[in-house]
Design a protein that fits this description.
9 helices, binds pyridoxal-5'-phosphate, 236 residues
C-alpha cells in the first residue's frame, strides 16, 4: 500500500469507527445486553461527502443528518452508495414531502400533523418510512419532542397510518455529567418504550445515546446510538 494514497482523514475516521464499535460492544457486555443488539448511526451533519465515503469504506451504512438541504446535496453525490439515511433534525411541516421522499428513517416525529403528512407524502413505491417519536423527557421548552403524557395518543394515530412504520422512540436528554443521572433519565424513556411496545408491531427501536453518553444509554436499553463527534471529530 502506498501510504500517500490514504488521507489522514480516511485513517482517522476508520480508526474512530473501530473505537466507537468497541465502546458499543464493551457496553453490551458490561450491561448484559445481547451482542450486536445496539446499532450505530453515524451522525455526519456539517461533515463533507468525503467523510461519509471514508465511513462507508470502513463498513458504516447508516448516516444521520439534521439539515435537509445539506442532506439532499450529499445524497445526490452518493446515489450509488449503500447509505441508509436517517433524518434526526427538527421537522418543519413544509419540509415533510422532501423528507418522505428522501429518507429511510425519521427520528423526530413529535406531532400528529407531521405524522399524517409523512404518511400521505411517502411515495407508495418506496418501503414504508421508519419513524420514531421524539420524547422531550426533561420538559425543555427549547427542545422538540412530545411530553410523556402525549405519547399514547400519538402512537395510536401513527399505528394506523399507511406508508409509515412506527419503530420506536428517540430522545435527546439535557446534558448530565453524572453517569447515574444519565442512566436515570434513559430508564424513564425505556419505561415509556415498553408501555407502547405491546400494542405496536415492529416497535423495536430505542434511539438514545450520543458520543458522550452511549454507555448509560446502552445500560438502559438503547438499540441505536447516534454518534457524530466520536466518529467524525468536533463540528465547527
Ligand atoms: C448532532 C446530533 C447527534 C450527535 O451528537 P454527538 O455529540 O456529536 O455524538 C446525535 N443526535 C442528534 C439528534 C443530533 O442532532
Amino acid at each position: 500500500m502506498n501510504k500517500q494514497t490514504t488521507s489522514g482523514e480516511e485513517t482517522d475516521i476508520a480508526k474512530s469507527l473501530v473505537h466507537a464499535r468497541h465502546r458499543i460492544h464493551a457496553a453490551e457486555g458490561q450491561y448484559d445486553r445481547a451482542a450486536n443488539s445496539v446499532a450505530l448511526l453515524a451522525v455526519s451533519k456539517t461533515k463533507p461527502v468525503t467523510a461519509i465515503q471514508h465511513a462507508l469504506a470502513a463498513g458504516q451504512t447508516d448516516f444521520g443528518e439534521n439539515y435537509l438541504d445539506e442532506a439532499l446535496e450529499k445524497q445526490a453525490a452518493l446515489t450509488d452508495s449503500e447509505c441508509r439515511w436517517h433524518y434526526i433534525g427538527a421537522i418543519q411541516s413544509n419540509k415533510t414531502a422532501a423528507l418522505a421522499h428522501s429518507f429511510d428513517w425519521i427520528h423526530g416525529v413529535d406531532r400528529e400533523k407531521i405524522a399524517r403528512r409523512l404518511a400521505e407524502q411517502r411515495p407508495t413505491e418506496l418501503p414504508a418510512l421508519n419513524c420514531c417519536i421524539q420524547i422531550n423527557i426533561d420538559n425543555e421548552p427549547s427542545k422538540a419532542g412530545i411530553l410523556p403524557d402525549q405519547l399514547p395518543a400519538l402512537c395510536e394515530v401513527m399505528r394506523n397510518l399507511p406508508n409509515i412504520r412506527l419503530r420506536g422512540l428517540m430522545v435527546i436528554p439535557a446534558a448530565r455529567e453524572d453517569f447515574a443521572a444519565q442512566r436515570k433519565v434513559f430508564a424513564q424513556v425505556k419505561k415509556l418504550f415498553l408501555e407502547q411496545q405491546a400494542g405496536t408491531p415492529e416497535f423495536d427501536t430505542l434511539s438514545m445515546g450520543m458520543s458522550a453518553d452511549i454507555e448509560a444509554a446502552i445500560a438502559e436499553g438503547s438499540t441505536m446510538v447516534r454518534m457524530g463527534t466520536a466518529i467524525f471529530g468536533a463540528r465547527a
